[in-house]
Amino acid sequence: MDIALLSALNAARAARQAAVLVTDLDGQMPGRVVTADRLADDPLAEAIRAAIRTGRSGLVPDTRTFLTVQVPPAQMVVIGAVHITQALIPLARSLGYEPVVIDPRTAFATADRFPDVSIHAEWPDVALPPLKVDRYTAFIALTHDPKIDDPALLHAFEKGCFYIGALGSRKTHAKRVERLGGQGASAEAIARIKAPIGLAIGAITPTEIAVSIMAEVIQAWRQGIA
Amino acid sequence: MLASEDDILGKAEAWARAGKGVAVATVVETWGSAPRPVGSHLVIDEDGTFLGSVSGGCVEGEVVTEALDVIGSGKAKLLEFGVADETAWRVGLSCGGRIAVYVEKVA
Question: Which domain of life is it from (chain B) (predicted)?
Answer without folding.
Answer: Bacteria
